[in-house]
Amino acid sequence: MNEKLVALLIIAFLVGAGIGYSASLPQISALQLDVSGLESEISTLTNEYDDLNTTYNQLKDDYSNLNNSYNDLLRAYEQLRSFFFFQDPEFLYGLGSDEIKWEGSSWNFSSRFTGDSNIQEGLATLFYNESTGDEWGGTVLVQGKLPHKWGKHLQPLEGTTKANAKPVEYVMFENKSPIPEGKFLLKVKVMVTERSYTVFGSYGEAVSNVGVDLMFGFDNANYNDPDVLKQVAIHADVILSRVAWDNSTKTESHTSDQSVISPSPYDNDTHLTLIRGQITQLDTWHTFEIDLAEIINTIFSLTKKETIRFYGAQVYTDGIGSYTTAIFNYVETTVDQ
Ligand SMILES: [Ca+2]
C-alpha cells in the first residue's frame, strides 16, 4: 500500500468518525438530562423516606406513650371498680341477736312440706323435706332484695375492697368492662349431713340442690315491679351440688358443670342454672372457690344484657321428691387487689 492511499484512508476514517460523533451529540445530552432528573428524584425520595421514617418513629413513641397512659388508666379503673360483699359472711350473729344479717324462710306450694333454718355459733343450718314429688320447695337465707317487692332484708355491701364496703341497694356490672379472671371470688364452706329421695311424683323426678342464688336486675327493667308476669330479674343459681335419683334403680347421680337458662314455673324472670361443684360425701366439709368474673361473664353471654345490678343473694337448699340438710360455715366474696 502506498503512502497516499494510507493518508486517504486515515482522512476518510477521521471524517467518518467526526460525522458519527456530531450526529449522536443531541442524544447524549438528552441522556445527561435524564440522568440528572433521576438523580434529583432519588434525592427527593430519599428526603421523603427520611421524613416518613422520622414521622413513623414519632408515631411509635406517641403510641407507646398512649399505651402506657391506657394501662395506667386501666390500673386506676381496676382500683376504683366496685364489688359486692355480704354482711356477716361467717354467720356469727345467730337467731335472737339484734345483729342478725340473714333472713331465713322456707317456700313450697303444697302442705306436705317441712323446712327450717337456724344460725348459731358460726354455722347456718338449712333443712327441707318435700314429700309430694310434685312441687319444688326449699329453705333459704336471704340478704338483700328479692325482685317484684317480694321482700328485703338488710343490704349487701359495695366497695373496692371488703374493708371500705358500705350497704347499698345494688352493685352494677357492665358487659363492656369485664372483671379480670381470678380477682373476684365466691368462697363457700359447706357440709351436707342428710340427703335422700322421698317419693317420685307425677314428674318422676327426685332432685336436691345446694347453692347460692345471686339475684340481679338488668338494663332498664324495673326490678321492683310487683307484676310477676314481667321479666325484671336474673337469678344466677350457682349450684355447689345437684343430686338426682333414678326413678327405677333409686341410685343417685351427681350432675357435673353446666351453664343453661332454665325456665321457671313460678315467674317470668330469667333463671340460670350454673352448676360449679359436687358434694359426694355426707358429713364432710367441702370448700369452693368460684370465680365470679366467670359467673358474671356467663350471665352476660347467656342473657345478652349490657348491664346487670346485683341486689342480693339466697343461700339455699331446695329440691323435689327429696330431703336435704346442709350446714354452711361461711359464704363470702373476696377481691384480690
Ligand atoms: Ca362460720
C-alpha geometry:
elongated
What is the domain total for the residues? 2
- Beta-strand residue fraction: 35-45%
- Contiguous low-pLDDT stretches (5 residues minimum) are none
The overall pLDDT, averaged over residues, is 92
CATH architecture level-2 label of the largest domain? Sandwich
Radius of gyration: 39 Å
Distance between the termini: 110 Å
Which CATH class of the largest domain? Mainly Beta
Q: Number of DSSP strands?
A: 18
Q: What molecules are bound to this protein?
A: calcium ion
Summarize the entry for a quick read.
With 337 residues, this protein is of the alpha+beta class.
Which key features would you list for this structure?
single chain, Jelly Rolls, 27% helix, 337 residues, ten-stranded mixed β-sheet, five-stranded antiparallel β-sheet, 2 domains, elongated, alpha+beta, binds calcium ion, 2 helices
Could you walk me through the main structural features you see in this protein, from its secondary elements to its overall organization?
This protein is an alpha+beta fold. The protein folds into two domains: 1-80; 87-335, Jelly Rolls (Sandwich). 27% of the residues lie in helices and 39% in strands. Strands 2, 5, 6, 9, 11, 12, 13, 14, 15 and 17 form a ten-stranded mixed β-sheet that branches. A five-stranded antiparallel β-sheet has the order 3-4-18-10-16. The N and C termini lie far apart (110 Å). 31% of the residues are buried. The protein binds calcium ion. The site of calcium ion has 6 residues, from strand 18. Calcium ion binds at residues 90-91, 122-123, 329-330.
